[in-house]
């Protein structure tokens, strides 16, 4: 902005700039106090009459940072350096409560100890460290480094944090009481080559954190973004952060806001116990599963397995072949981590988000790294070719698919149960948080179906997903809400057959040549546009009953039988 002579002006006057919501703004001194004629002698760059500004700004998802926010600022002074920061309010990170953390120049936040390593030990480290890796790499060896941080206990930042968390976790009814913002910049400070930010948020007994990404220049070392916990009980790696595609992080998200990732870090509730002596006699009652579950466990004489091997699975030979979307199998693999696969076992610990378009047919009742949570877990399975279970399966399928006139001849039931305890009695009585779900495979004639059942399911802090997929993903489905860990407790209330906690799907047939439906329509089916509308209604009904949406309906013949 350049100024020459300025004559007398009789109206209000101002020089400077402002932005939407005034996130960035500046008023040139003397421009509003009546001394505007002196502007030709003022400057911020030692050139009288000239004012120069950098118009660069961080993306809107970033919380305010730097000198404009009054942050504490640091520039790199030592290789692999870090700064300890004491909290004004304790912060709970997946069950561990901390009064301080360490901000590292290499894009890392650690809680219980500093991390001397220059670059990432890829998650999960299964070590002795709780950390958040905003973008962990040897950045301080290639760029000038600058970071700033600030804590807030009141004001507009808390208002913004409250709004953000309630937008992403609406069931929490959350109010922020403390926010910690730390931002890293690498390269020229006026227009950084690499920019990212972490926001820690707490309130009541809840804690969360956000990770925000801007531009990311080329990095020549290993990189990683995500979080890990002591013994890696909870851990997550942001996709694209380790595969060389980290520059795309500004376009990725888990909350539908490009460049932002949001996580719940657990609740730090402390149980206060008041002891009162009462003389009573009680008999502890074993926990029972919801009524939608088929019989399982010792009472059903199932094969029982204790969850003991990391990413383990068991091969099960089927007494009757089962057809899954056009492919017939004589065996399957039951995985400890909530997965059933058909043509091959799946060694990966957690889900590769649909659509995989890979070489695998599978059913994911609840696919996650459940076997690494440190909880006591078991699964059971059994096949049936006669008896009351077949009768029940026949009734269920005919209720949900009434046009099939189905009769079950084979049923396979697999049930998983995890409880946050190491005590057998607590496991039996479900006296701690639990995750319980079941898959039921059903066949008869040339038809096959499967049910998925959900009981109580605690929040899962790792990648998670439920549904099914097929080779090349020709047929696939993800149960809504199942790939967001904080929504998992609601699965017991969801359904596609109006039975809370139950999802029912048709697994295909060997040769279905037709489908009979009763349809009432007041449309003129001699008109092409009305025919298309009715066909779409039929298609939606099929999808509602478990059919993939990857098909097209065409009218082969139309005959008017009544005027």
UniProtKB/TrEMBL annotation:
Pfam families: NIDO
One GO term (biological process): cell-matrix adhesion
The NIDO domain, residue ranges: 134-267, 365-510
Chain segments annotated as transmembrane: none
UniProt cross-references to InterPro entries, sorted A to Z: Alpha-tectorin (IPR052749), NIDO_dom (IPR003886)
Top-level lineage group: Eukaryota
Protein name: NIDO domain-containing protein
Organism: Cyprinus carpio
